[in-house]
Amino acid sequence: MSDPNNPNIEIRSTPQWSLMQRELFWAPNDEKHAPLNTDPDKLKKLAEERLSKGGWLYSSCNAGQSWTHYANRLAFYRHQVIPRQLVDTSRRDTATTIFGHRVAAPIGFAPIGINRIYHPTGELSPAKVAKELNLLYCLSSAGSCSIEDTAAANGFGGDEQQNGNGGARFFQLYWSPDDKVSTSMLTRAHRSGYTACILTTDTWQLGWRHDDAAMGNYAFYHEHGAGDLALQDPAFRARLREAGIDPVKEPKRAGAEWIDKHIWHGRSHTWDKIPGLMKQWKDVSGGKPFIIKGIQSVADARKAVEVGVDGVIVSNHAGRQVDGAIASLDALEKIVDAVGDKTYIMYDSGIRGAADVFKALALGARFVFVGRLWVWGLSAGGEEGVRHVMKSLLAELDIMMNVAGYPDLQGIDRDALESLPKGTYFPGTPDLT
């Protein structure tokens, strides 16, 4: 195992994450053990055992027959890492920079809504862990906890001079057709130290998910209601008063008012409106970055560059929106070739381990977002589960860079991969979930 006194520890700017492996191997000597198994299949199974049926289905459901989800996983299989030997990896470092933030790795917490259906602490646990590990955290505007409370969990103290800005955090916007509500959310996000706006463009309404539809599994209509993020918003509270809805006495009606009219409202927005929203965020935030999430086509990537966005996230919403769509990793290759030198390209969808992070970086992504992994960690073990899953992912990436012979992130490029033909599939019938 790695020598805990390895001089590499003093050279690099991040902890030597790989030492976690040694700690886990030694732990039985001190009558300790890992809180959970981070193998994605075993982690998923544990989350299923511990969640309610509705919570489990919401975390795992894909659109239609899951073909897009399968395409995501098959694309990762198709690209295979070429290890290098006799390379000096003693100075390796996982740290990188994203929009001026120095973070511990090119890995962020993807924005995922209604976290309280996975654990009572909701968004507070992943926000806290992200700060501890110096990873980027993204809050969904469909979240359970308020913008302000989540920022506080991420280390924001209000008085930046005394308490600092806390962790690096972005705010993901589901674009309400009500300008007052959108402006209010963006203003709250800026005041709470969120330093970029991520507009998700692939989810004006949810895709058809068989299990959720069969169960009527839509938490906003049932036990979840509107959540603190909505109920602490002054513009939305005004809309509730206008509609004559008391959120305390009628939480389900309040939840429906929030989700139906302001989050997954079914009204499409178009490219011609993007400059206006971008200006609105820039005016509110003092010019902070504006990012579009959900880009899959080269034409859309070029359009994003044309309208002047600061970055794009190549994502198919992990296969939860359009069934039978292109794998996000395949889209990434084409988009990097088309606009990789013109905007900051990030990746999301289907990440299950360090090899997947490595492959997305090799294909040209500068940053990668993880979703279901940390959600399953939260579901299985709350804050401790999130911490263990994300620290393990950092350790796995650190170890992979060591054993595969890639001492720095800059060296991870397309020459690091052997790519099999499209249409290549797994031998046998593995569980692709």
TrEMBL record:
UniProt domain FMN hydroxy acid dehydrogenase: residue ranges: 32-422
rRNA processing recorded as keyword: no
Cofactor(s) the protein needs: FMN
SUPFAM superfamilies: FMN-linked oxidoreductases (SSF51395)
Signal peptide: none
Alphabetical keyword list: Oxidoreductase
Pfam families: FMN_dh (PF01070)
InterPro entries found in the cross-reference section: Aldolase_TIM, Alpha-hydoxy_acid_DH_FMN, FMN-dep_DH, FMN_HAD
Domain of life, per lineage: Eukaryota
UniProt family annotation: Belongs to the FMN-dependent alpha-hydroxy acid dehydrogenase family.
Protein name (Swiss-Prot/TrEMBL): FMN hydroxy acid dehydrogenase domain-containing protein
Originating species: Apiospora hydei
